[in-house]
Every structure is written in C-alpha cells, then in structure tokens.
Inverse folding.
C-alpha cells in the first residue's frame, strides 16, 4: 500500500511540474494534450503487448531490466543538465 501511495505522489509531482512548464512556455494546451495522450496510449499498449510475450523469456528479470533502463535514463538526463553551458 505504501508503494502505491508513493507512486501516486511521485506521479502527481511530475504532472504538476509538466503543467507549470507548459503554462510558462505558453504551449497550446489542446495540442499538447492530444500529443501526450496519443503517445502515452501507443507506448502503454505496446508495453502491455510486448510484456505479455517477453514475460516468457525474461520472467523475473524484467523488473531488474526496467530498473537498469530507468537508472540509465536518469544518469543521461543528469549528465545532460550538468554539462550544459
């Protein structure tokens, strides 16, 4: 239960940051919602389909693989921000 609450809180903080950023940048909100929603739908659907088939091969290692991928993405973003002039 605590994990679910933590995930919900992190998602809310992320959504707030994105909302404030879009407002500050004066982005067309309708277009942004359509693009974000469309991409999210496609990626989530592909994730479910691929996950259903990949679970046979990678099984319990899927969480480790996902964690390593997220750590890699986080390190890349950190490096990009720290090396920017």
């Amino acid at each position: 239960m605590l994990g679910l609450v933590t995930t919900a809180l992190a998602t809310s903080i992320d959504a707030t940051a994105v909302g404030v950023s879009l407002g500050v940048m004066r982005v067309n909100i309708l277009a942004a919602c359509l693009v974000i929603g469309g991409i999210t739908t496609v990626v989530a659907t592909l994730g479910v389909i691929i996950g259903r088939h990949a679970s046979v091969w990678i099984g319990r290692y899927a969480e480790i693989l996902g964690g390593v991928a997220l750590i890699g993405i986080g390190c890349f973003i950190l490096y990009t921000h720290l090396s920017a002039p």
About this structure: The radius of gyration is 16 Å.
